[in-house]
Amino acid sequence: MKIIVTSIFVQDQDKALEFYTEKLGFVKKHDIPVGEFRWIALVTPDDQVGTELLLEPNNHPAAKEYQKKIVADGIPATMFGVADIHKEYKRLLEKGVKFTMEPTKMGQITIAVFDDTCGNLIQIVQK
What we know:
The chain is α/β, with parallel strands linked by helices and 127 residues long. It has one domain (5-126): 2,3-Dihydroxybiphenyl 1,2-Dioxygenase, domain 1, CATH 3.10.180.10. The chain contains three helices and eight strands; from the N terminus they run βαβββαβαβββ. The chain has a four-stranded mixed beta sheet. A hairpin with a 2-residue loop joins strand 2 and strand 3. The longest helix is centred in the middle third of the chain and has 12 residues, at 61-72. The protein is globular.
C-alpha cells in the first residue's frame, strides 16, 4: 500500500492554489471541475509522480468545524519536510508568509509553523 493523495481542507480553492503554488512552490498537477468545486492536486516540483496534495473545499459543516478547532488549539493541519529550515523560513518570510512559530529545535528535529491564509496552520520540519 502506498499513499498517493492526501488532502487539506481550504476555505477558498483559488486562494489556496495561489498560496500553495506562488508562495510555497508546489506545482499544479490536476485542476478538474467536479460539480461546483474542482479536483486541484499539487505535487513537489522535483517529484511530480509522488504524493499529491489535494486542496479540498471545506464546504461540509464538519470540515469547517474541524478546521476551526485545530487552528484554535494551534495544531497544524499537515507537515512538509524541508532540507534547511532556516533557509526556507527566510524564503517564505520574504514572500510575505506569516509564521506563528519561528524555527524551534525539538530534540532531533527543528520545526516552524505558518498560516496558509486558507484556514490552516502548516508545520515545516527539518530532520
